[in-house]
Amino acid sequence: YPLRRQRQMCIRDSLEAIRALSLDELTINTRYRDHPELCKTDHERLFRYELSSAIESGGICASASSGNKAVSICAIKPLNWDSRHFGHPMAKLTLAAAPECAPDSVLELLDTVITSMKKDKPHLHISCEVDIDDYNCLNPLLNLGAIILDIKREYRWTSPKNIKPPKFLSQIRDYRPEDKNRVMSILHQSDFKSRFTRDALLNPKKTTELYKIWLEKLLDGKEGDRIALVAERNGEVQACGTIEKHDLSHAGININMMSGGIYVSTPLARGSYYPIIYSLTEKASLICKTSQTCVSLNNHPAIRVLERMNFGTRSTRYALRLVR
C-alpha cells in the first residue's frame, strides 16, 4: 500500500459505486466499537451509510484503492440543520484507512476531497470524529491543521445487577411535565464544556440554544422512547438526567438501544449523578438489551462515577475541526 504506483484515487459520486466498494481492508471503528450486539458487518453497514448519506446530502465521497480494494475512504456530508442553526455552512467528515495504508496516501485523499468540497463553499466548517487508536486517520488530519476540541468516551451497560445501589435513591423520581420550567432553568445555570463550546468559530449563543433545543426535545419525548428522571431535594428539583432510544434501522441493522442523553444539575445536587445514572440503568434495561452514554473526558466527576460502576468501553474518540 505505501507505494504510490499501487494507489488509484477515484471520486464515488453514486450510491451504486458506494455499495460496490469493498471495505474489507479498512479499520472501521464506529462509536459503537465493541458493542456486544454488533458484528464487523454491522460496523461496515454503519460506515457505508455515512458514505451514502454524504452523497444524498450533496456532499462528496472518494477512495484510494489498491487493485479492486479500497485502502482509504473519505466523505464529507453537508449538515443542513446545523448550517441553518449556526448560520454558517457546516459539514461532517468521515474517514477510514487500512492499517498498512501510508499516511501520505490518506493525506492526499483528504486534500483532494476537502479542496473539491470547498470550491463552492470556501468557508465550510468541517468537523469529524476519529477513534483514539486510529493513528492512520488522526495524524493526517492533524497534519492538515485540524484541531482537537474534545475527547469523548462511550460508556456502555446491560443491567445494574452487580452494581452497589448508591445513596439518595429515594430522592430520584420520574420527570413530570410540570418540572419542565425548573429543569430548563437549571440548564441555563449549567456550564457545558464540549466541542461546541470550545469551537471559536461557533456563536456561543447558538451553542447555548443548541443544548436548550436538545433538552426540550428529550423532555417532550414520548414515554418509552426516552427516560427522564429528576433528583428532588427539600421539595425542589435540583438535577435531571435523560436518555433516549436509538435504532440503527437506517443502516439496515435491526437493533434498538438507549443512548445519548443529557444531565443538568445545580450546586445543591452534589452526589445526585450516581443515583440518577443508576436509576436510568435500571429503567433502560427494561426497554433495551444495551445502553450507552457519551461523556467528555474532562468531565471528571461523571467519569469517576461511570468507572466505579464498571461501565467500561474501548470506544474513545477525538472530536476535531479542520481549520483551513
Task: Give a quick summary of the entry.
This protein is an alpha+beta fold and 324 residues long.
String of helices and strands = EHHEEHEHEHEEHHEEEEHEHE
Q: Tell me the structural class.
A: alpha+beta
**Oligomeric category:** single chain
| Helix amount | 25-40%
Q: What is the total tally of β strands?
A: 13
Alpha-carbon Rg, integer: 21 Å
**What characteristic shape results from the CA principal axes?**
globular
What is the terminal separation in angstroms? 28 Å
- Largest β-sheet summary: 8 strands, mixed
Number of helical regions = 9
Layout: helices, strands, pairs:
Blueprint: E1 8-11, H1 15-20, H2 40-56, E2 60-66, E3 69-78, H3 80-86, E4 90-97, H4 103-117, E5 125-131, H5 135-143, E6 147-157, E7 172-174, H6 180-189, H7 204-219, E8 226-233, E9 236-247, E10 256-259, E11 263-265, H8 273-284, E12 291-296, H9 300-308, E13 316-321
